[in-house]
Amino acid sequence: xxxxxxxxxxxxxxxxxxxxxxxxxxxxxxxxxxxxxxxxxxxxxxxxxxxxxxxxxxxxxxxxxxxxxxxxxxxxxxxxxxxxxxxxxxxxxxxxxxxxxxxxxxxxxxxxxxxxxxxxxxxxxxxxxxxxxxxxxxxxxxxxxxxxxxxx
Length: 152
Prior knowledge:
Layout: H1 22-32, H2 64-76, E1 82-84, E2 87-89, H3 105-112, H4 116-132, H5 139-151
Antiparallel strand pairs: 1-2
């Protein structure tokens, strides 16, 4: 449990269940990449992004398959994306909006918008986790975080 409305820096909500230090857990997966022929691709989705009037931008849980469809096509190489400082994002034309009459191009653009100030706040808030894992956090994670900060 935690404070209502406060983002908890807890990767995959595992801290209460992990039987060892999360820094060691991260190290394990970084070392696994040497043993895996085809590394998994990682995608970030913010289902909870809100409009200026406080409404969720994404039309709802029942529409999540549309995001997964884009991810599958992206992994298969059948569609592209455009690169932003945080990674690759969909083109509106490649995103299945069939039947989403209330989800407009403007809604899509707002959901996909990149705001450097929001990401700076995100990096700062990650500091809590990094401090908690300081003695064990893999240097690769620190390096990637610094690279992200540099792209902002």
